[in-house]
Amino acid sequence: MNLQNKFIEYCNTSNFEINRNQIKIINSLEKFSTENFGTSLLKNFFNKKIKLGFYLHGDVGVGKTMLLNFYYNNLKFKKSKVHFNEFMINFHDFIFNNNEKDKGIENFVRALQKKSKLIFFDEFQVTNIVDAMILGRLFKKIFEKKISVIFSSNIQIDNLYKDGLQRDQFMPFLKILKENCYEQELLINEDYRINNKKVLNRFLYPINETTNFKLNKFFRELTKNKKKTKKIINIKGREFVIENFYDGIVKFNFEELCNRNLGSEDYLKISQNSKFILIENLPDFDDNNSDQQQRFITLIDIIYEKKIPILISSKNSLNKLNSSQSLSQIFKRTISRLYELTSIKII
Fold this sequence. Notes:
Rossmann fold; five-stranded parallel sheet; globular; six-stranded mixed sheet; 2 domains; 18% strand; alpha/beta
């Protein structure tokens, strides 16, 4: 059975709508597979035009992840799927722990090569200047070692890290991506994450006595018979304290998480210790608090990757949350993910 027929069967079994634009992407992925993982004869036939990367971009909630997950799950060889933030944390940890300098990238990619023929980066974006400056050399080596890479993103390649600091140092990476990746767009005028949800039971607004009562009542019921403790997380010698910790059920004020000098590594450690996260007092965003908004975007990305259910109290309704100008496009993804995270079942 070819990939298209498998996908149609998968959609029918899962009660998913079958969209011709998704079928088009599936057929492109099958061609990508034939070129990269087919028999030696077929690979030699495609050798002059083979590309090791497949970069799929499109608006939020159109099914990019669903498509690439389906493709990924049908591959029968060593592979890995990793959130980009976590991947870069692993890279920096490797360099730090092995005291790597001159051959750090070479040795890191060699280690990757032993584990995976293909790496899947879901919802790829770049916001960190340190990462932006190193990605060109890192991915040049990844492609040299013949590791295949698939990406999903809300952003086309040319617009990655747009208006970012020292973007000129990021341009070699864009060139490497464009040379080594098939780039395709998934066009669907619907956000499935929003349209498939019925009631947002855990996104409470506005912030007033009524919503505070609902929030506290919900939290009391969730933590019933659980002991409150103070959880201390160590992050490379730094301590982060979770004051309200109830056996993996945690409660934060927005300021604790996003108005401090925290980043993806901190949020990853928090998520690894959490089964349910409550965030109080989410503000509206504008150009005056864009730093806090960027941290919130990173936080939600990691929570979403770990599929941790959340409850939020907010100044504004979810569909009316404003954004700083520079983050408005990226924030659409955050809004879409919040619909899902405040709706998914609590285990």
